[in-house]
């Protein structure tokens, strides 16, 4: 159960989604991440904060950067780490999660970081195991640490998130990064606009408190920051492009290349959560340009995840 606690502690035992966090929680995570970022720039990048805490990383869906980022964050905090990865395709939903629950109970781990193809999987786990749960992406639902590191990176680049105009472009319908970003940015007082094909907008878009613009040039002219999302080809169904005519047409209408960037006529900050489909949502000349903070996002991911794990672990009762 969440309780309000404005200073020093998070108001929640788990990080299941941005919906669980207050603006004060997010600010606390950012301040804590500032300290860990400083640690990561030291020659010895390790602190003993999570010594004697065991963390299981359960990845039921492919991941490279998120898994490595969590593992590094855990090791920098001196936690004991166990990893489990499995491809989701051959396992059945109910069985897998119940098996997972029983395994975790037997291993007596303190915290679980889980990526799973089913929305709600992290919530389910949090109700059945006596461990702190961090959602590392549950299907098309939420990816809270990505949204936190994205907002943290905007704060670092522009000084604040409040009042900034943030554009999210692409496959909003299938993107857990989009939903978590919208919730996080709005909690922090940013204005959010979505841009993409009508077929890749969720039906409930009107309830999210965001603007929608289907013309990318107009949307880019409005924003301070553009977050270019990957088309979630694995979630489209059919031949992978059931929701739009071709990747070539998508790139023409919704892709960001140098020419389009220069037409904006002002500097904007370019973001991408990775992995990038270069030449589809963004071309290499923009992704690798001075306007891009893509690698800063990756760097900040470790500090932000350290902050989340540290703050959640501080709510675990520890024996003397
Ligand atoms: C994102 C994800 O998995 O949702 N990537 C990530 O966390 N590194 C975005 C994506 O896959 O496009």
Note the topology:
Blueprint: H1 23-40, E1 54-59, H2 65-76, E2 80-85, H3 93-107, E3 111-116, H4 121-128, E4 132-138, H5 144-158, E5 165-169, H6 176-187, E6 191-195, E7 211-212, H7 216-222, E8 225-228, H8 247-254, H9 258-264, E9 269-271, H10 284-287, H11 294-313
Parallel strand pairs: 1-2, 1-3, 3-4, 5-6, 5-8, 6-7, 8-9
Helix pairs in contact: 1-11, 2-11, 5-6, 5-11
N-carbamoyl-L-aspartate binds at residues 65-66, 137, 143, 146, 176-177, 230, 273-274.
Short structural description:
With 320 residues, this protein is an alpha/beta fold.
Description:
The chain is an alpha/beta fold and 320 residues long. It folds into two domains: 18-142 and 299-313, Rossmann fold (3-Layer(aba) Sandwich), CATH 3.40.50.1370; 144-298, 3-Layer(aba) Sandwich (Rossmann fold), CATH 3.40.50.1370. 39% of the residues lie in helices and 14% in strands. It contains eleven helices and nine strands. The strands form two sheets. A five-stranded parallel sheet has the order 7-6-5-8-9, with helices on both faces. Helix 5 crosses helix 11. The two termini are 25 Å apart. The model is unreliable at 1-6 (pLDDT under 50). The structure holds N-carbamoyl-L-aspartate. Residues 65-66, 137, 143, 146, 176-177, 230, 273-274 line the site of N-carbamoyl-L-aspartate. The site of N-carbamoyl-L-aspartate has 10 residues, from helix 2 and helix 6.
